[in-house]
Structures are given as structure tokens and as C-alpha cells.
Amino acid sequence: MIDSHAHVHDKAFDVDRAEVVARARAAGVDAMLTVGCDLADSGRAIACAREYGLRASVGIHPHEAKDAPEDLAAAFAPLLADPAVAAIGETGLDYYYDHSPRDAQARVLRAQMRLARERDLPLIFHHRDAFDDFVAILRDEFVPGMRGVIHCFTGDAEQAKIYVGEFDLKLGIGGVLTFKTADGLRDAVRAVGLAPLILETDCPYLAPIPHRGKRNEPAFVAATAAKLAEVLGEPLVAVTAGTAAAARDLFRLP
Ligand code: NI
After folding, report:
1. Cα dist. 131→21, 35, 63, 126 in Å?
2. 219 alpha carbon to ligand 1 midpoint, in Å?
3. pLDDT value at position 93?
4. For 217-249, how does the pLDDT look when each residue is reduced to its tens digit (9 = 90+)?
5. What letter does residue 162 receive in the DSSP assignment?
6. Structural domain range at position 29
7. In the prediction, which pLDDT does 75 show?
8. d(Cα 201, Cα 188) in Å, to the nearest integer?
9. How far is the CA of 172 from the centre of ligand 1 (A)?
10. What is the count of structural domains for the chain?
């Protein structure tokens, strides 16, 4: 299995990070991406990836867009030079919290998309309550040959079909799939099938049942894999192998 979206460098893991990584490997998680949310956080992600043999991403989350540098490409350049970096993100639009002005969110999203295109790197997208504006920006900036994932996908079947059918994006499936209220997400997953799906935890947040309410960690991706197999009616081994192959392809992992 691959945990395509974790925050292993988060301070929630400061007390036992080595044990967390060891538990993940023992559970069959053979690759993990630790995802940055602003420039300083992305630096911590890279340092963590180097120390523990993970991969990292460099990005500015829409919450942090108000503090983003004017020249984003110049600010990202030293970080992107590190061979542990496998993606740009998380980036996107979040109109649920609106922690940054919406025009700043859009500017920083577009800048990261252009940088991903120049660098031939995949994008990790975060969006919440912003579907129409987000898709409009995708139609502007996301050209054929670019790669990306809708992290923590929780949309419906129509949205899933647009992301997969129009943009060939992957959908990141996390612990929400196991929640009792997530029938719409389960329908969406069945509508697109296994091929575009990759697994994630978004740890330390959003732990799947039966760990819900606890600190999430990469080993718990196994619970989401089991639920996905049940939802799709596929053997577990097909789900773990299929999602891992899709994640390796997206992030160009060995
Ligand atoms: Ni995240």
C-alpha cells in the first residue's frame, strides 16, 4: 500500500515518529508522501522525508495563501531541488473556512499549477465548497500531460466523473470512506471504479473507523483499503495493488 497523503512531519508525531513509520512499514505501507502546507512546513516535510526514507511535497495550502510570496517560483526553487520532492501541493481553494481571501487563494493556486507544469511534477489539490471556481481554474490551467490528485475526495459521482473523465485526475480516498454518513462518496467511488483511485490517510487527521477520533497514522490506511475493497466488491489484493500502481504512476515512484 501507499499512503499518498500524510503529514508525518506534523508535531503530532514528534514524540514517536520512528515508531509510527515502523508500524506503517509493518502494516504493508511501503511508500508514504509527507505533504507540505506552506514554505516552512514544506521544509520540515523534506527533512522528515530524508530522515525516514519517505517522499515529500512542497506547497502552499489555500489557508496560507494570504502569506504566500509574490514570486512563488523563486521561493519554491531551493525546495524543489531536493530529490525527496515528488509533488507540488497541497494547493487549491477552501471556501468553507475562507482563512485567506478568495482572490489570493486563486492566485497562489494558479502559480503552483504553472510551476508544476514547468517542472513536470504532479499536483496535490485540496478544495472545499469551491467546486465551480476550482473546475474553472482547472479548465484554464490544467493542460494535457499534467498530473494530479484530488486529495481527500469527498464529492459525488458527478464530480468524480468530471475529475476523472475530463482531466484524468486521480481521486485520493481516505478515512471518510469508512464513515457511516459517506454514502455519496461510496456511490462516487463505484461510479469511477478502481483505476483512478489512490489511498491516503491525511494523518494526523481523519482516522478511519475503527480508529475514528484517535490520532490517525499511515498504518491505518489498511482500514480504508479494506473498506474500499468491500465498497467495490473487489479482492483486497486487487485494491492494494491497483491503488499502489496508480500512486506510483502519479508520483513517478520506483
Ligand atoms: Ni493534508
Report:
1. 34, 22, 16, 11
2. 16
3. 96
4. 999 999 999 999 999 999 999 999 999 999 999
5. I
6. 2-251
7. 97
8. 19
9. 11
10. 1
Peptide bond into 217 cis (omega under 30): no
Distance 202 CA to ligand 1 centre (A): 5
Which residues are CB-contacts of 30 (< 8 A; sequence separation ≥ 6)? 1, 2, 244
User: By CB neighbour count within 10 A (0-12 exposed, 13-18 middle, 19+ buried), where does 107 fall?
Assistant: middle
CATH number at residue 10: 3.20.20.140
State the alpha helices, DSSP H only, in the chain: 17-26, 39-52, 72-80, 102-119, 131-141, 157-161, 167, 183-192, 221-232, 236-251
* pLDDT at residue 36 in the model: 97
* Structural contact between residues 204 and 165, judged by C-beta atoms closer than 8 angstroms: no
pLDDT at position 68, please? 92
Q: How far away, in angstroms, is 103 Cα from ligand 1 center?
A: 22
Residue 81 CA to ligand 1 centre (angstroms): 22
Burial of 230 (0-12, 13-18, 19+ CB in 10 A): middle
CA of 122 to the centre of ligand 1 (A): 15
Query: What's the pLDDT at 155?
Result: 95
The Å distance, Cα 89 to ligand 1 centre, comes to 9
The conformational region for residue 247 under phi > 0 = left, psi -120 to 50 = alpha, else beta, is alpha
For residue 172, what are the β-bridge partners?
198
The 10s digit of each residue's pLDDT in 160-175 is 999 999 999 999 999 9
pLDDT for 13 equals 98
Question: Which residues does the chain have with pLDDT short of 70?
Answer: none
Q: Model pTM?
A: 0.96
Quote the ligand 1 centre to 27 CA distance (angstroms): 21
Give residue 5 CA to ligand 1 midpoint distance, Å.
6
